[in-house]
Amino acid sequence: PELAPRTCAAAGGGGSGTDDGLRGEDLFSKLVPLNVLEDASVYTASRDDMLRELGEAVETLDGTVEAELSGMDLPHALHAVEREQQLPDGIVQSVGRVHASGSGAALAQLVNSLPQLASDVQGKSMAIEAILEVEEGQDQQLQQAHGDRWACVRSTQLTADARLELAQLREQLSQAEAA
């Protein structure tokens, strides 16, 4: 028997009577309802914004700490003290400039503000975790409501990736707090 080629009704072809389910509404819209796509888009945007803010806060904190520590020239200064030699003139002059400009107090203020910054970052990470938990719950509901059709979206992988990134940022925060 010869098979007759079938045409897709959505593309304007005639098709057979069995193609009635493909006519009219877009096939993708039947598989993934618009409200699901909208909800996923809103969630993804808010999650990305919070992760971006958390990452920027950690990067800012890292940059500030690194700049301050680099400005102190600590490895060379500590090495000189351990050898019980006189400090190099450059370090003595730098320390004099720091004390004269009041930057010692600014550095102390910066160091004293680190726990508050860490607390703020920790709060944001907890908010992100709460959003991820809500997303997982919504994903389970959508999986139950839409069955295999929901597997097309793969939001569980996005949530797992976000949790991994959040865990890495928390580890960096813990290391910064311990330092």
From TrEMBL:
Location of the ALIX V-shaped domain: 86-178
Spans annotated as Disordered: 1-21
Family annotation (InterPro entries): ALIX_V_dom
GO BP terms, alphabetized: protein transport to vacuole involved in ubiquitin-dependent protein catabolic process via the multivesicular body sorting pathway
One annotated Gene Ontology cellular component of this protein: endosome
Lineage: superkingdom: Eukaryota
Protein name: ALIX V-shaped domain-containing protein
